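Continuing the batch. This is chain 6 of the set; chains 1 through 5 are on the previous pages. Same settings as before, nothing changed between runs. Recording input and output for traceability.
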Amino acid sequence: MFVDANGFHEGFHRLLELVLDRGGVTEPITSRYSVGSQFGSRPRRTREVVGVVLRMRNPRDRMLPIDCRRFDVGFAFANYLWTLTPGADPKAIVQYNRRGSLFLDSTGVFQCAIPHRITGGGSQGKNLLVEAMRILREDPSSRRAIVPIITPEDLWEEPRDFPCVSSVQMFIRSRKLHMVVHMRSQSLVGVLPYDLFLFTLLQESVALQLDVDLGEYQHICNSLHVYEDEFSTASDLLKCEAGCVEMNVMVEPNPLSSDLHFRLERDARSGCHLSLDDLPMYWQHLHAQLRLTLQRNQL
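Output for chain 6:
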């Protein structure tokens, strides 16, 4: 099923309508490895549509308005930086979202953390995002700029943090960077707003790095679902009449070419809040939101 929208707020409402109107009710997942069943302790049914594509013509319209659904910009931005960090520390992202600790294994690591799959997931420990960008620089028409996230080992190891995202693929067409993200599983109410923010911001970072314009974004969901305890929330969200929230055009310093953002984030977690005055307003706002999230979680 294909859903076409200018931006995320519009697309989110169309997806809600689709799942609530046409979704089938599934039997609960019972696996002790699945967060959907709270690791076997609380199996929940879902209303689900299999095989959904959301196309967004304007990926900068990537956030829901505050009147629609609470959205933690600070955590979303921290997650974006964490995703781009080689050897990302699990404890870092947990400081922004304590629920992340649920996915840690007995040794205190995320077995399938997206940062590890992206920044060091090749057979020789290569940064797959860097390699994908290299391919596009060498051949802008390439269809090989794909970053696989799920690996064969995930099937038999069944980690607690089995990746929801299967792959990320990028195309340059008419000097615009298009991105297609393939999800094996997508929680519509709880997780999609954060996934859309992460991947569209990543898309814009790559476009800036490759010196091309921002193109369209497509989000393919093999399973798009709403949990039974979210049915009433999903219905209420459809009543939102707020307008879209479009971010400005991304500017330098690009996190793909500068470590400044990562140093600022590390300093913020250590309690040393360096001045943001030298940053463009675009980045000042995001880092300020990041710090507010940290402060709330430390109370």
